[in-house]
Amino acid sequence: MTFDPASQHPACELATPTLSALEWAQRPQKLPLPAESVEKIVGLAAAPTPPNARLRAAVKRRRR
Prior knowledge:
two-stranded antiparallel ribbon, 2 strands, 8% strand, flat
């Protein structure tokens, strides 16, 4: 961001995904979740569903 010396308003503002991620990382916040939700997330991460035929076909198309 560049500022106009004659005022306090920005003259040019640049936004990129990387800059946005850095900005969000500077302000961490707690996310309150019920215990049931946390257990569900842990269970899904521990035992993901196996890929089905549609997913395999999509991967095959993507590799070409």
